[in-house]
Amino acid sequence: MTTRTNTRIVLVLLVLGLAGCQTPQKQETKLQIGEHLTTMENLARSLGLRIEERQESFVVLKNSANTVLIFTHPDGRFFVNGKPIGAVGEVAHSGGVVYVPDLLVTQIRPHLRSTLPTLPRPTPPKPRALVVVDAGHGGRDPGAIGAGGVYEKNINLQVAQRVAGLLAQRGVNVVMTRRDDRLPELEDRADLANQRNADLFVSIHSDSAPNRQVRGFTLYVAKAASANAMRAAGCLNRALTATGSEGHGIREADYVVLVQTNCPAVLIELGYLSNTQDTLRLKDPAWQNRLAQAIVEGILAYVQ
Ligand SMILES: [Zn+2]
Known about the structure:
The chain is of the alpha/beta class. It has 10 helices and 16 strands. The protein folds into 2 domains: 3-111, Copper Amine Oxidase, Chain A, domain 1 (2-Layer Sandwich), CATH 3.30.457; 130-303, 3-Layer(aba) Sandwich (Aminopeptidase). β14 (217-221), α7 and β15 form a beta-alpha-beta unit.
């Protein structure tokens, strides 16, 4: 048996019971309208609300996002979230149960707010950064030459290729100034970054010094380096320090690739080819990988 049938029966009984009743107030409950009346409980359930408060002349229905106030006296009105919506219409009272028109469901529903959690708007993904990776020297310019004829240009290219591969894997757009043994002009390397509107220019070199005991990496920025160039150098310095290699900090020098690039530019000296141990390490693919990973971590820390 449905609740509605119950309602109808109750109201029919009420009609019969009240037939001779003299109380004018009871007659207000135009009991023949049982077909379209519903209990406050059913109304609340249909709307996903609970009965929060029930008084003689009003009922408050609630959920986490809404408050519905229904006056149950004659000519009562109903309010959704403080806003008057309309007249309740016929209200019947019987045995402590309040009946209201079931039409209220369709009248209230459009005014209810969603109880679904409002998720923060997803932030649009950052456009992918573009990093220019520059392998120093090349072609007829070998750069520094280490013990056993190790050419700086080759070490630079091997590490630069590893850096470029790892950056691409991490979703960074990469442009290399050279992918093989050729010698682009220094100005052309900087121009490439400028034409592509790069976010960062990283030049990879290997060092040499008269003192053959000197080891470790060094970072260079231009003398008039921007704050962003300094920040990028700081990120790279931290990441390279984590490899355990000795660091000589961030130095300033006006190399062509540092001053002619519009974007932040950092030059990395990976180690000293004038030092035997550094040379052995720089030739070692495992150490090249280690350095490349550190450089990529530094770049990611800067661009992300
Ligand atoms: Zn060099």
